[in-house]
């Protein structure tokens, strides 16, 4: 056994863990990070955010080559999908990105331990390595940042062949003829978009009555219109409770109960389980230090400290949305709190994004939340069909910017966008919420012409005093 002493040890190297480690090191703490897998970066960089965006972009290029290049005056013949090459490019993107994290660890003098970390006691971490050996770390403080794993449903086993998670979907080198997607949330619609664009028949089964539940209702309705139009063999079945699956030769049969209580079946070549993710705290030795989870998550206080002093938890293992950027913000928050600073996180101002095309993004309150809470509000809505920039890029078929402000004070309460570059434009809403701006504040800012962001200005003018110019 070797003796390694640190000020802080981070368990998990995803966007929460590695960012926390870097900020701790910047603040002068001797820092270690433990990662059970061979590469740093966690789910996001290896089998989540980064690889999925690589495939989403590749499939969008193919879709445009099929459907819009001729309108632009670009002629192509013998167009075909090379799925193995798409996967290779995706892997290259992942390798480059994770290598960048390796560099950042070295740059910030953070010691990296490869293996499964678990608590012996609150100040001693055991690292079990792949070769069967073990190492111990002595540490003053610990940050748990072990992330999440794909969730499943009762009666359905993810066999990684016919019933797969997003991890396996990102490695498919043969295009499925028909893919059932269980779950119409962010992961479900992104993967449906990838394989639907490439030619797979897509059937989404969703328990709720809409796509992307939790985001503003108008976004899910518009996204469903987009998928119906852009994916030739797409269908979505809402209010369907999936009850089981079985393998029949080369096919997978999924059973569900519809809103009438009737059992219905769906048959496909592969079934993607996309019902969300569960906190990953397996074999962490939490019981050795007296931490009990609540519904799988680790309880924390306002400083993200667990019931055990000097042991913190961030990201997917604690309450809140399972978002990479939320985990990163929490990592910085904890590091700065440990250093005696007074950091700040406004969870209401953390945006959510869906990387279909058009992109979907939202921040702040949804209209449904405000109605339920009885808050008086006004709405400004501007469609991209009226945007000159969107018309020039042929992105004006669908989408809008929706801005919600308080009816009496005009304070910005929410911004919701489905349209080109929504993931980038939502930052106007994030900044507006953080600085408690009014819709009028956004409306009076000069936005360059022609840009997609002009639609934000127009929607803000609509929310302020119904003074939209270009509609």
Task: Please explain how this structure is put together.
The protein has 471 residues and is an alpha/beta fold. The protein folds into 3 domains: 3-150 and 278-345, FAD/NAD(P)-binding domain (3-Layer(bba) Sandwich), CATH 3.50.50.60; 163-275, FAD/NAD(P)-binding domain, CATH 3.50.50.60; 349-465, FAD/NAD-linked reductase, C-terminal dimerisation domain (Enolase-like, domain 1), CATH 3.30.390.30. Helices cover 32% and strands 26% of the residues. It has 14 helices and 22 strands. Strands 1, 2, 3, 4, 5, 6 and 17 form a 7-stranded mixed sheet that branches. Helix 1 links the parallel strand 1 (3-11) and strand 2. It is globular.
State the main characteristics.
Enolase-like, domain 1; globular; FAD/NAD(P)-binding domain; five-stranded parallel sheet; 32% helix; seven-stranded mixed sheet; alpha/beta; 471 residues
Summarize the model shown:
By secondary structure, the protein is an alpha/beta fold. The chain has helices at 15-26, 42-47, 49-67, 83-107, 166-169, 186-198, 217-230, 324-338, 367-373, 388-392, 422-425, 427-434, 439-444, 454-465; strands spanning 3-11, 31-35, 111-114, 116-121, 124-128, 134-144, 148-150, 163-164, 178-182, 201-205, 234-237, 241-248, 251-257, 263-268, 270-273, 277-279, 311-313, 352-354, 359-364, 377-383, 400-406, 412-419.
Q: How many β-strands, per DSSP?
A: 22
DSSP strand (E) fraction?
25-35%
Give the full name of the CATH homologous superfamily of the largest domain: FAD/NAD(P)-binding domain
- Oligomer class: single chain
Task: Output the radius of gyration.
Answer: 24 Å
Q: Under CATH, the topology of the largest domain is which? A: FAD/NAD(P)-binding domain
CATH class designation of the largest domain = Alpha Beta
Look at the structure and give the mean pLDDT.
97
Poorly predicted tracts of residues: none
Structural class: alpha/beta
């Amino acid at each position: 056994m070797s003796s390694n002493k640190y000020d802080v040890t981070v368990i998990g190297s995803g966007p929460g863990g590695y960012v926390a480690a870097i900020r701790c090191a910047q603040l002068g703490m001797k820092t270690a990070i433990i990662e059970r897998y061979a590469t740093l970066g966690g789910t996001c960089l290896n089998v989540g955010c980064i690889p999925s965006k690589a495939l989403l972009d590749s499939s969008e290029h193919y879709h445009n080559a099929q459907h819009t290049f001729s309108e632009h005056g670009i002629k192509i013949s013998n167009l075909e999908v090379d799925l193995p090459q798409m996967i290779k490019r995706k892997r290259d993107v992942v390798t480059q990105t994770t290598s960048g994290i390796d560099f950042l660890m070295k740059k910030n003098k953070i010691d990296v331990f490869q293996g499964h970390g678990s608590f012996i006691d609150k100040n001693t971490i055991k690292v079990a390595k792949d070769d069967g050996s073990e190492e111990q770390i002595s540490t003053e403080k610990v940050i748990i940042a072990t992330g999440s794993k794909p969730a499943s449903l009762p009666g359905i086993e993810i066999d990684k062949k016919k019933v797969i998670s997003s991890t396996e979907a990102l490695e498919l080198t043969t295009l499925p003829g028909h893919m059932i997607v269980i779950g119409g949330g962010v992961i479900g619609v992104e993967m449906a978009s990838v394989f639907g664009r490439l030619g797979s028949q897509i059937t989404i089964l969703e328990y709720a009555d809409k796509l992307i539940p939790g985001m503003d209702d108008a976004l899910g309705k518009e996204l469903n219109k987009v998928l119906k139009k852009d994916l030739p063999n797409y269908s979505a079945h809402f209010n369907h409770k999936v009850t089981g699956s079985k393998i029949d030769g080369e096919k997978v049969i999924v059973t569900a109960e519809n809103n009438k209580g009737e059992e219905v079946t769906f048959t496909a070549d592969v079934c993607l389980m996309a019902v969300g993710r569960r906190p990953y705290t397996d074999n962490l030795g939490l019981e050795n230090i007296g931490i009990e989870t609540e519904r799988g998550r680790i309880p924390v206080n306002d400083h993200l400290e667990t019931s055990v002093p000097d042991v913190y938890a961030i990201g997917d293992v604690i309450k809140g949305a399972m978002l990479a950027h939320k985990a990163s913000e929490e990592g910085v928050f904890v590091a700065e709190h440990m250093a005696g600073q007074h950091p700040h996180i406004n969870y209401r101002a953390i945006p959510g994004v869906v990387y279909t095309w058009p992109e979907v993004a939202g921040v702040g309150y949804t209209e449904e939340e405000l109605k339920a809470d009885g808050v008086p509000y006004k709405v400004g809505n501007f469609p991209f069909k009226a945007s000159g920039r969107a018309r020039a890029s042929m992105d004006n078929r669908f989408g809008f910017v929706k801005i919600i402000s308080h009816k009496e004070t005009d304070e910005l309460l929410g911004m919701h966008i489905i349209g080109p570059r929504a993931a980038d434009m939502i930052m106007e809403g994030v900044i507006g919420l953080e600085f408690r701006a009014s819709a009028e504040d956004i409306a009076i800012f000069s936005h360059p012409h022609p840009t997609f962001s002009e639609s934000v200005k127009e929607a803000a003018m609509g929310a302020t005093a119904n003074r939209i110019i270009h509609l």
